[in-house]
Amino acid sequence: MDFSISPKMQTILGMINEFVDKELIPMEHDFLTKEFSSLEPELEEKRRMVKEMELWAPMHPKDFGGMGLNLLEYGLVCEALARTPLGVYTFGCQAPDAGNAEILHKYGTPEQKEKYLRPVINGEIRSCFSMTEVDLPGSNPVLMDSNAVLDGDEWVINGHKWYTSSADGSKFAIAMVKTEPDAAPHLQASMIIVPTDTPGFNLVRNIPVMGHTGDSWHSHAEILYQNCRVPAENLLGPRGMGFILAQERLGPGRIHHCMRWIGICNRCLELVLERATTRPIAPGQVLADKQIIQTWIGEMAAQIQAARLMVLHCAWKMDTLGTKEAREEISLIKFYAAGVLQKVMDTALQVHGGLGMTDDTVIASFYRGERAARIYDGVDEVHKLSVAKRIIKEYKAKKGQK
Amino acid sequence: MDFSISPKMQTILGMINEFVDKELIPMEHDFLTKEFSSLEPELEEKRRMVKEMELWAPMHPKDFGGMGLNLLEYGLVCEALARTPLGVYTFGCQAPDAGNAEILHKYGTPEQKEKYLRPVINGEIRSCFSMTEVDLPGSNPVLMDSNAVLDGDEWVINGHKWYTSSADGSKFAIAMVKTEPDAAPHLQASMIIVPTDTPGFNLVRNIPVMGHTGDSWHSHAEILYQNCRVPAENLLGPRGMGFILAQERLGPGRIHHCMRWIGICNRCLELVLERATTRPIAPGQVLADKQIIQTWIGEMAAQIQAARLMVLHCAWKMDTLGTKEAREEISLIKFYAAGVLQKVMDTALQVHGGLGMTDDTVIASFYRGERAARIYDGVDEVHKLSVAKRIIKEYKAKKGQK
Amino acid sequence: MDFSISPKMQTILGMINEFVDKELIPMEHDFLTKEFSSLEPELEEKRRMVKEMELWAPMHPKDFGGMGLNLLEYGLVCEALARTPLGVYTFGCQAPDAGNAEILHKYGTPEQKEKYLRPVINGEIRSCFSMTEVDLPGSNPVLMDSNAVLDGDEWVINGHKWYTSSADGSKFAIAMVKTEPDAAPHLQASMIIVPTDTPGFNLVRNIPVMGHTGDSWHSHAEILYQNCRVPAENLLGPRGMGFILAQERLGPGRIHHCMRWIGICNRCLELVLERATTRPIAPGQVLADKQIIQTWIGEMAAQIQAARLMVLHCAWKMDTLGTKEAREEISLIKFYAAGVLQKVMDTALQVHGGLGMTDDTVIASFYRGERAARIYDGVDEVHKLSVAKRIIKEYKAKKGQK
Amino acid sequence: MDFSISPKMQTILGMINEFVDKELIPMEHDFLTKEFSSLEPELEEKRRMVKEMELWAPMHPKDFGGMGLNLLEYGLVCEALARTPLGVYTFGCQAPDAGNAEILHKYGTPEQKEKYLRPVINGEIRSCFSMTEVDLPGSNPVLMDSNAVLDGDEWVINGHKWYTSSADGSKFAIAMVKTEPDAAPHLQASMIIVPTDTPGFNLVRNIPVMGHTGDSWHSHAEILYQNCRVPAENLLGPRGMGFILAQERLGPGRIHHCMRWIGICNRCLELVLERATTRPIAPGQVLADKQIIQTWIGEMAAQIQAARLMVLHCAWKMDTLGTKEAREEISLIKFYAAGVLQKVMDTALQVHGGLGMTDDTVIASFYRGERAARIYDGVDEVHKLSVAKRIIKEYKAKKGQK
């Protein structure tokens, strides 16, 4: 075992941390109180700087303009970027574009790659991923209602989706729809690329989430597909392979999310330390002198360390043995890191008292927005059951062999 | 011991529950997505209905137009009203007016009562309570910076306050300021009534709290007092008694808050039951069929029951023995009920999955806004320490007697 | 609502607390390090004192020599007695005799009452309750294997039981066995009185529990019934009503247990206070001066208060509306109070550090023995599910009516 | 980063796991119900087998007959051995001998090494470590009362120690006593080797711990040093360096303990899986089919994984950068792994229901004995504070530099 980080990565992370501190954290106040679109011109300039520093699109292949980092390396980058909500966007690795690009890279036709992948990686356009159904649990594919039928050389799509993040302003959506209703449950869906200006692609609303309707990249839309027609060649990957591809997309995506959460935890701890070492509570005393606060700092440090090593280990396993071999670890980190995140955010808020409730720090925004960590990409409970079933199955198999 | 609820209160609570269900819950969607002031005309009509039903101002004295309920009875009313964020406002018992009215009733001069108390209880005007300092912990009175000096027959007030809830639109503030800098620490502050149109009373901003700036009653302001002059007779209560009065104000206020939190818990449990019994998760199965959800429902029920009985017991003790005798119980319920509230809200949100994050239910609003329950009126930690010190002191005293 | 305790009960509780302090706590060291039977002569003398004080058998009917307290009153007595592991035994209200007496009083024939009930209540003999099966979950009656068949005027009993508490030294067992294999699942079992000197009643062993085999009243036996024959008239209650009677026995028994746990919590808190106020940690400082310890004391106080009020409320409901109406509350207190107990014991042990692990205080004994609180009479999980199912059912019924 | 385990270690761990399964777990029932000394002959035979397999004394230097593993490698061995309470003893790496040997190896004179170290490593004799004082907290060295004064060429030792583990049957103790009362607080104590047959070395009692007095290696003694005289050359290491050496001893010792706890967790999980997959709860259903049990298995797996990676990372850091550089990590793992251990043991017990309380499985023994994990070598709370103080100090230093 060797837990050391390569000199190359140490350099990269040092540059990123400095950039985040100097260029992005000062923009947070605007992020917290203004519309996202009003920040875009300034963010465009920051993106230009990132490209010049050759830190753009760290997880994308080099031949498409990225840095070509492996998953563990990119995980460390996510951690550094997530210290601010503006990090991943500015470095060209924001969801859902990152995941969409991955699918396009692996399964897209040469034409799809030129038309959709390249401009997404370049940050020229944005895209969205349209999977979650309004009234149905995402964890059970059998319950999908949206569908597409081939009418001549066109797919005709009908369906009702929501939580299509960043649809507002996107150039295209990757829609997950049922195309093979008679196949086995996991082989019924396909992915289809839908330009958002296609008639029948209706963005009903940006959903108000935690009091915030959002706009542009920073939004979650409800989409109604009504006889929405796209060319047959917009099929992404083989017919009926939608769920398989979505699962593949989710694996690395969970590393991205989990390392992002660790980064948020790190930021929360920094804010706690700043607050605790400066906030007077009695003449000559600050919060950091008190056992309760010290206890919390100790516990935060332990939880962050635990979650961080788990996620890095999982990334390493995926890099070396592949996603499939790491399915148990992926489920473990998903719920474990989300739990740590929530505890750390909650403690950070409490240390800040009334100030923690306001948008004068970034904590309240983390607290309300990242509550979703325990929900998206599979609620905690589904992952716990999934891990357990796998462990039980392995135990039985091992016992049977004896 | 007798845990029964009187027939009178059962009738009152039945009426309130029905009113909340029929008149207020349907308005919640607007509350969650619009400015508060845009709801005020409709709420004015609801308030008229409440007055006609003779359920107005339940905790205020009958001779001022209230129902004259005792603390335990009013606690039960709070519980019923808190099922919706619009409850207390519509029934004329919203903070901070309720607490202000109590102080005015006990300590106001006849002139102050006519000018300020009566219209507040009638719901004709609103008021605010200006105590919390921007950079100083509320729990340590020595650290107060705002002050007033008597200049002839006028108080000249200077200071910087925030979290002055509902200042926006208020007719007057009760300001807590240092007037006796040379007195013992707890005897330095006084309360002064400050009409909000007084020059030098500057509402700097409504503070963005959890992403929401708010307006009117539903807001928290930052106030700058700059050579703000009010007549000497605006002193409320004796000089130097500000903290004593504020403590007195807080005692019953904590019952109001805690029972309100129980009401929010009850609503959360209702929403969980509705969701669990209707949300399909597999063909022929709903969430409520699953052990995980059932376990949560069992745990929610236990926590709510525990917190509820503790608060009612505390209210009973205050009604029978007085606030001072119940100080330990008041601290216990403050942090215990706040903890239960947070767990229950969190579980309710989780049961709703992605929907729980949106403002299509009231849960996300509870989740972010009521996070403050563990902070205002004394953070959890201060109450735990306070209880412990009292218990330790009692133990030593008891042992010394032996 | 009225949370006051009657003067009569205050007097009784005062006497009990004094007796426990002066007569029983000094015997604890022997209890913790010697066999129980070696303490019995001294305990016999204490029992005599209790009878003279007219505090004997508090929950048993007056005409059988008890005090005739109702459930709430007796709950308060349990709380006081449980401050020491020797309390309930010394006051003639130890399990399983207490529960057996209740069944015999309600369902015994006049002959059974004279022969078994009277001497049990008098403390002349002890008894045991033989229900739990070795390999089968107690919560599912269908899975019972032990059985009895009527052969002429004798029951012939076969079966394998364990956790038959206090069988060692008992004069008779009440055995729960299947007698009606063809009836509906809940109507298959009956209760039969089995004198322990009956051939075929084999006490295989006292089971080592938490490192302690135990003896006499303080033991848990494994029993093998092998063609064990008793007269037909030893049937207790109607045929096939075993489970119904057992349930009835369990209801009040849970109040006894829960209030006993509260008493243990109270004792733990006393020990924490004694330790914290005397243990030096630095020159001039004791544990009680530290925020961590204070926080724990505050949390213990809150948890104990919460659990205590819940149990008393449940007892009141059973006294006024009957056991059946209080089924939900009974399940709630069972798991909630057990959870509080475990947290409080754990904290008390931690405050005592290395000493807490030794048998130089009573805490380690509580810690290991009372871990069973979350298991016996229905594991936590079963009660949570049971409460939830009832709540869900009520919700559906209520909604259906609308 | 590379999380792979070397082929050499995989082979060693495979052999150990098989040995534990075949040779040691079958002896557990005797361990749980008999005196330890009665097992020693059989254990001697097992030790002989271990030596033949060349797996003896894995962490000791090769030139003293050990395997010479580094800390990370030995940590993995601890994990494998700890699946049974008999593991470390049988492989010659039991506490306190392991730590004593380390000190002797580093600081012993050549004569001390021959006389004490060699036979300890060979398993010919046992030793104990006499540091903890009866009434004083171990975490504060200033509070040590035991002392030694040099009288001619002899140390005269007086003092009262307890928790001197395994003193019963030991050939010598390493006693920590104050020798330099006028030095700075951390430089007052020295280590002295005291043969246990020295007059004045009085083993007062084996302390009953969790109901178990214990004997031989499996015991904790109270020791009274009364004018106990040993030759001056029995000083171990330099005068006044006792605390420094003890700290050095504790660092690696915490890795040993923590990895041992992970091993106990692994065993608990195995027992849970066996129980869950075989225990019927309804016709055709076993525990493992239930969501509650599955959820627990998922949570156990995550907690074990988190703690395990943290401890291995810490061992790696100590191996590569030294103990001093890893002080923060050492404190983190101490309380974090202890917390995971307790949760896992508790869950394992709960899954076993009544059986879990008995000594028919090893769980109850783990549960009561390993409760001490949160206490010895520094209570959780001390480590949390220690970590926090270090983090706060680093934060201030870093900020000061900017």
UniProtKB/TrEMBL annotation, chains A, B, C, D:
Species in which this protein is naturally found: Desulfarculus baarsii (strain ATCC 33931 / DSM 2075 / LMG 7858 / VKM B-1802 / 2st14)
Keyword Protease in record: no
Quaternary context: Homotetramer.
Keyword presence, Oxidoreductase: yes
UniProt GO molecular function: acyl-CoA dehydrogenase activity; flavin adenine dinucleotide binding
UniProt entry keywords in alphabetical sequence: FAD, Flavoprotein, Oxidoreductase
Record domain Acyl-CoA oxidase/dehydrogenase middle: where: 128-218
CC cofactor: FAD
GO cellular component annotations of the record: cytoplasm
Domain spans labelled Acyl-CoA dehydrogenase/oxidase N-terminal: 10-124
UniProt family annotation: Belongs to the acyl-CoA dehydrogenase family.
Name the UniProt record assigns to this protein: Acyl-CoA dehydrogenase domain protein
InterPro entries for this protein: Acyl-CoA_dehydrogenase (IPR050741), Acyl-CoA_Oxase/DH_mid-dom (IPR006091), Acyl-CoA_Oxase/DH_mid-dom_sf (IPR046373), AcylCo_DH-like_C (IPR036250), AcylCo_DH/oxidase_C (IPR009075), AcylCoA_DH/ox_N (IPR013786), AcylCoA_DH/ox_N_sf (IPR037069), AcylCoA_DH/oxidase_NM_dom_sf (IPR009100)
Pfam families (alphabetical): Acyl-CoA_dh_1, Acyl-CoA_dh_M, Acyl-CoA_dh_N
